[in-house]
Structure formats: C-alpha cells, structure tokens
User: Which sequence fits this backbone?
C-alpha cells in the first residue's frame, strides 16, 4: 500500500453517511483526520465511525487543521462554492459534491483559484464512473447509433411522504434554490456533455409545474435541448410525488437504440433484428463511489487533472442555468459557448 492520505470532511449529512463514509472505510489509503459540521449530533455519529478524527463545528477551523492533504466538501450547494474556494486558498486539493455551484460567476471564481493553487479539484458526478455508463458513452462516440442522436432522460427522486416532515422540509428548502434540475441536473448535464462530445446547446426550452401551489419552484420540469452538432435531448425531472416509475436513459439513433435502467443495472442495445443486454451485478452506488474515490486518489498521486472537474462542472452549470432561466422567463435561451 502506498501512502495514506489525510483528509478533512466538511459536511456530515445524508450523502456522507450513505455513500462517502462507507467508501472511505473500504479504501485503506484514506484516513479521515478531520470532521466538520455545525450539527453536533451528526458530528457525534460521524466520530463513532472515525474515532481518531478531530471534530469541528466551524469550517474555517477545520480547513486550518495541520497535515490535511485533501478536503472533501460534502455540503448543500449554497455552501459548497465558498468552502471550495477557502480550501483552494490554502492550496488544498478538493473533492466536492455536485453541483459545484449554482451560479456561473462562482464557478468561474473557483476555476481561477484552482489555476493559482495548481491542485486537483474533482466534482462528484459519480454516475459517470459506472461501467454501463462507460459502455454507453463509448458506443455513442464510436458512431454505433449513427447521427443525429436523440436522448430521453428521466430523473425522479425524493418521494413525497406527508408523514416525513423532516424530509419534506429539506426538499422544499432545496426548491427555494431552484427546480429539481438545479440539483439533479449536474448528472444529466455531465452525461450530455460526454455523449455529445462537449457540443454547445443551440437552444433550450423548458416548462414546469408545481404539484402543490405553495412549493417555491416547480417540482416537475421538462426541458428540450438542441445541440449544435444536431443532437436533441428531452429531460424530465421530478420531486415530491407520491411514487415514481423507474428512471432511465433512452438513446435513439438511425442505426440503433438503447436503454440504460439503473434500478435493474441493465443496458440494452437494439437494432432491427438484434438485441444485446449487458447486466452489472454489483451495487450501483458502491461501484460508482469507490471508482470515483479511486480516480481522485490517482489524480493526487500522479498530479492529474480530474474529470469530471471544474470545467466539466461549468458546462453543466451553464446548461442548467439556461433551463432555469427558461422556467422563469418562458422564452428561448441560447447556451454560451463552452470555454
């Protein structure tokens, strides 16, 4: 085993306990040296998992802790960009959860600080590390589907349970920052960036509804994005409905079609008289989070630029901002060129 990496974890919420902490415990090169969260009960639970760590309720104190070799920023999107910038000002490599920021100006500030610090910044679009996603991406790029390609993507989460007021309150607070796509859209935008090989969005149209009139933003959104390479994407995202059907990624091309279904861990390819189904038996999240962490470690070891990183995140921030703009203004919105 090569050297252990001492990390600071800022944010001990659901994503930390459900995904990152188990991945840290499976990776013997990671030592959680610092834990930080303003909620003392969350800190106590986290410290039970990592008893040798030092705990802080203040992020400034946590980021100043000596001997930290990387910071994991696992916070809500409103807090994330400022914490990433504080870590970069200390020349500390960063892994942050998606979205890196909700506003383009904050993303650009992070990119400038990243250049000055000359350290890796990786953004947590973990689904891109799944082997089924890799297979789909490679076939698209190899021309298996032909051109143009149409993508139909559904992202449905956060079932409404009237008895779970804590969960409902948390999701409603998230809707104050934007629609479900403002949060879930980072993954969708990254898939489309990879599938279209960084094609810029030529036009965006979107609409949404509130299933309850008092929700602060539409909780069901549908968007249509046409790309300058001729491809087209139809995106649907929903929160706070009593149940959802399984999400999928459907790909349509003149030479063939495909469907990736995460719940079943399957990727099916079809042509006129052909069908091929690829199945992955391993748990989706375990596989994605472990591969994502291993990629970050590799970038630290070899001083590589992570992907997805800040520039990939910027692409997604611009695309989702265009959709959110269309939801607010109800008019077509052109996508800025990718830097």
Assistant:
């Amino acid at each position: 085993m090569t050297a252990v990496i001492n990390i600071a974890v800022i944010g001990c919420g659901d994503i930390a306990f459900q995904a990152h902490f188990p991945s840290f415990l499976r990776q013997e090169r990671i030592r959680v040296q610092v834990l930080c969260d303003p909620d003392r009960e969350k800190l106590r639970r986290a410290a039970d998992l990592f008893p040798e760590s030092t705990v802080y309720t203040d992020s400034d104190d946590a980021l100043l802790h000596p001997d930290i070799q990387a910071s994991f920023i696992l916070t809500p999107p409103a807090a994330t960009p400022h914490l990433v910038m504080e870590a970069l000002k200390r020349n500390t490599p960063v892994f942050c959860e998606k979205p890196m920021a909700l506003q383009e100006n904050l993303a650009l500030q992070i990119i400038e600080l990243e250049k000055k610090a000359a350290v890796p910044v990786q953004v947590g679009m973990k689904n891109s590390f799944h082997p089924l996603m890799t297979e789909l991406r490679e076939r698209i790029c190899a021309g298996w589907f032909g051109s143009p390609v149409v993508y139909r993507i559904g992202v449905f989460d956060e079932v409404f349970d009237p008895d779970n007021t804590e969960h409902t309150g948390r999701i409603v607070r998230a809707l104050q920052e934007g629609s479900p796509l403002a949060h879930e859209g980072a993954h969708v935008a990254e898939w489309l960036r990879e599938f279209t090989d960084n094609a810029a969005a030529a036009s965006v149209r979107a609409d949404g509804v509130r299933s309850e009139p008092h929700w602060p933003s539409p909780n069901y959104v549908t968007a249509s994005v046409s790309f300058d390479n001729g491809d087209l994407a139809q995106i649907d995202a929903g929160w706070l409905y009593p149940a959802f059907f399984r999400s999928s990624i459907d790909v349509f091309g003149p030479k063939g079609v495909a469907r990736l279904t995460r719940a079943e861990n399957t990727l099916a390819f079809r042509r006129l008289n052909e069908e091929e189904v690829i199945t992955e038996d391993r748990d989706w999240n375990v596989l994605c989070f472990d591969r994502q962490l291993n990629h970050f470690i590799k970038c630290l070891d070899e001083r590589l630029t992570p992907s997805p990183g800040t520039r990939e995140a910027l692409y997604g921030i611009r695309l989702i901002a265009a959709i959110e703009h269309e939801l607010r203004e109800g008019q077509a919105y052109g996508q800025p060129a990718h830097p």
Q: What stands out?
A: Residues 5-127+288-309 form a domain with the Rossmann fold fold (CATH 3.40.50.720).
